[in-house]
Each structure stands twice: as structure tokens, then as C-alpha cells.
Amino acid sequence: MDNASYTQLTRQSGLLREIQMIAHNIANLSTTGFRREGLLFSEYVERLGGEEPSLSMATGRARQTYLTPGALTMTGGPLDLAIEGEGFFTLQTPEGERYTRAGHFTPNRDGELVTPDGHRVLDDGGSAIFIPPDADQIAIASDGTVSADGQPLAQIALVRPADPSSLRRETGVLHAIDGEVEPVEMPQILQGFLEESNVNAISEMARLIAVQRAYENGQKFLDREDERIRNVVQTLGR
């Protein structure tokens, strides 16, 4: 296989990853708190021997999470929370602390505030938040202070990555941060609201069509190269 085919195969691999990523974004149009992802291409240069020029290839491996806020939907649920602006809720999972924008929470059987998957929501001290079962009214202030019948209980932790590029999606709406986290200085939490996905259906579909066409054109190039090499082999074999 010649250098042109190697270069095109590397590009095809990246385009296929991007198609899969866009399809995943589209599939989560209605997922609360979902963050759109994109693929970043970078240039890889390989030095060849002798007098040959270097070989440049495009590789698509780095993922980027877009932090553009999604639209807010009013639910009226006392434990439905949306973040206005930057920041993530902090969760305790079996794999350690993880972060999310999906704010649909409920008390578990022990009265701890948890996600639908059972992950504990943490306060600014790293502890679980307990909701008294006999509380008549739960109020959550914009700074994350949780009160039951007028008595403050805890303050929900709202953090952000010190380096935005260190944010990494693990599953669905759960993210890990490969680096330092810092508290949001002026948190804005809205009680009775949920944040929608930040995926724009029209732009994602347009991008999907463009990437699919690029992939198909690349495949046609590889097919022509394969046919050319076969013809050369057949000619030399006569």
C-alpha cells in the first residue's frame, strides 16, 4: 500500500469516529443535561527515509465537550435543579467523584439526595446531602443552599474544571475531570427547572451529511487506488 492510501485510511478512520460521535449527539437530543461532543483533527507528520518528502496525515482522536448552556424547562419539581451559567454538580459514584449538568434528583431510602442512577449529590464539603423525610417544604437558593422548612441543611457543590480541556465524558451525562477543579464563584442554581441538551438538531444533521459525504469520497479514492494497483500488478505479471 502506498503513502496516499495510508494517508487516506488515517483520514477515513477519523471521519468514521466523527460520524459515530455526531450520531451519539443526535440520539441524545432529549437527554437532560447532555453536553454535545466534537472531534478534533490534528496533523501527524512522519519523516521518510532518503530524498522523499515527509508524510503528513490527519488523525482524529481528541474529543471536545462543548459547554454551551442548553435551554431551561420549568418542571416545578422541588428537587429539579438547573445551572444557569457555568459549573457542574458533584456526584459520588463507585468510580469516584463525577460531574453532571443533569439536575433531576430525588431522596433515596436513607434520605440522601441522589440521581436516578443512585449517585449521591455532594455538598461543598464533599458529604452527602440529607433531606428530612418529614419536611413540608424544601427550598434551594441560587447559591445552592438547601433548606427544609426554613432551616439550612447544606450547600450543593458547584464546580468547574480549572482547564476546560480536562473535562472528559465517561457515560451519558457523567463527566470526569483529569485535572484540578475549582468552585464556581457566583453559582446560579434554579429550583424547579431542568436544563435540556445543548445539541442543535439542524446543525448536527448538516454536519452529519457533510462528514458522510467526505467519508464516501474518501472511500471512492481508496477504491480507485485499489483498482490502479491491481492493474499495475496484472500488467507487470504478464
Give a quick set of tags describing it.
2 domains, 238 residues, alpha+beta, 18 strands, 33% strand
Question: How would you summarize the topology of this molecule?
Answer:
Blueprint: H1 3-27, E1 37-46, E2 55-65, E3 72-74, E4 81-83, E5 88-93, E6 96-100, E7 106-107, E8 113-114, E9 120-121, E10 138-140, E11 145-148, E12 151-155, E13 158-161, E14 167-171, E15 174-177, E16 181-183, E17 189-191, E18 193-195, H2 201-236
Antiparallel strand pairs: 1-2, 3-18, 4-17, 5-6, 5-9, 5-13, 7-8, 10-11, 11-12, 13-16, 14-15
Helix pairs in contact: 1-2
Number of domains: 2
Discrete helix count: 2
**How large is the share of residues in beta strands?**
25-35%
Quick check: average pLDDT?
87
Measured distance between first and last alpha carbons: 21 Å
How does the major sheet shape up?
5 strands, antiparallel
Q: What fraction, in percent, of the residue positions are helical? A: 25-40%
User: pLDDT below 50 for ≥5 consecutive residues: which ranges?
Assistant: none
Radius of gyration (CA) equals 25 Å
Number of strand elements = 18
| SSE series | HEEEEEEEEEEEEEEEEEEH
Shape: elongated
The computed structural class is: alpha+beta
